[in-house]
């Protein structure tokens, strides 16, 4: 097991990619604090066994983040891994987007990574070791017209990953990102598979001819958290079925 006796914090951990990452961390031997604003996370943590705990928090609020870090230290004594995964979207064209919705998405997607990253890094500095993983997206590079704050936040996350890595490298802390393409979370399954047209739109720009699974993103997170990635920092790895390499559409079966 690559992460035996390590302690991981995973935000946005009650479903989808976050839950898959928590499950993979535990499978690799880590103890995990699942963090989410949704109280049903307690049930998800209970199903994962003695290696899991749950803390309800709005990770875009500093007081909640500080309390989450304190609770993790009280339960586990240290923090070796942070997976910054909490995020939301909001669909609206540029001319119709409200200030409040722009601010909300930026607060949850971007500010939360700054707050959690800073608070956890202060613990890791005392340990002189740690791995922080920020969940980005192919939409850090590719824009969707009606996803203005989401696209902006993901582009900013890539730069945050780089600047964090440069600041923390002398303390033995590595900071990397993951940029998923279309991953079949429950919400994505409903959206992507809702009609043949929506399915074909996604698959026509995905050379591998299929969407990804949450577990495939979690496997990259496990790699980045482990010593297998000991010489990697400041990087964002794209788990996208080849989408970023494509400059045309492909036929769909």
UniProtKB/TrEMBL annotation:
Keywords assigned by UniProt, alphabetized: Oxidoreductase
InterPro entries assigned: KR_dom (IPR057326), NAD(P)-bd_dom_sf (IPR036291), Sc_DH/Rdtase_CS (IPR020904), SDR_fam (IPR002347)
Entry-linked PROSITE patterns: ADH_SHORT, PROKAR_LIPOPROTEIN
Family: Belongs to the short-chain dehydrogenases/reductases (SDR) family.
UniProt signal peptide: none
Gene Ontology molecular functions: glucose 1-dehydrogenase [NAD(P)+] activity; quinone binding
Domain Ketoreductase: residue ranges: 6-181
Protein name: Glucose 1-dehydrogenase
SUPFAM superfamilies according to UniProt: NAD(P)-binding Rossmann-fold domains (SSF51735)
EC assignment: 1.1.1.47
Pfam families, per the entry: adh_short_C2 (PF13561)
BP GO terms, sorted: fatty acid biosynthetic process
SMART domains in UniProt: PKS_KR
């Amino acid at each position: 097991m690559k992460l035996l006796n390590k302690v991981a914090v995973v935000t946005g951990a009650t479903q989808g990619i976050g839950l898959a990452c928590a499950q993979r961390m535990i499978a690799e031997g880590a103890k995990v604090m699942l963090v989410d604003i949704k109280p049903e996370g307690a049930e998800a943590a209970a199903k994962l066994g003695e290696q899991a705990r749950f803390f309800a928090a709005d990770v875009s609020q500093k007081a909640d983040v500080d309390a989450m870090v304190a609770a993790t230290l009280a339960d586990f004594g240290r923090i070796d891994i942070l997976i910054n995964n909490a995020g939301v979207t909001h669909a609206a064209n540029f001319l119709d987007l409200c200030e409040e919705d722009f601010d909300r998405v930026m607060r949850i997607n971007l500010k939360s990574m700054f707050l959690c990253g800073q608070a956890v890094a202060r613990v890791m500095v005392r340990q002189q070791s740690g791995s922080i993983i920020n969940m980005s997206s192919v939409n850090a590079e590719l824009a969707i017209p009606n996803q203005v704050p989401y696209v902006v936040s993901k582009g900013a996350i890539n730069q945050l990953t780089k600047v964090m890595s440069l600041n923390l490298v002398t303390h033995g802390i590595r900071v990397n990102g993951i940029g998923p393409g279309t991953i079949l979370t429950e919400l994505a399954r409903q959206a992507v598979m809702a009609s043949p047209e929506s399915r074909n739109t996604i698959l026509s720009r995905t050379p591998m001819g299929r969407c990804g699974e949450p577990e495939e993103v979690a496997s990259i997170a496990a790699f980045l958290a482990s010593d297998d990635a000991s010489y990697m920092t400041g990087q964002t790895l794209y788990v996208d079925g080849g989408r970023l390499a494509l400059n045309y559409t492909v036929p769909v079966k």
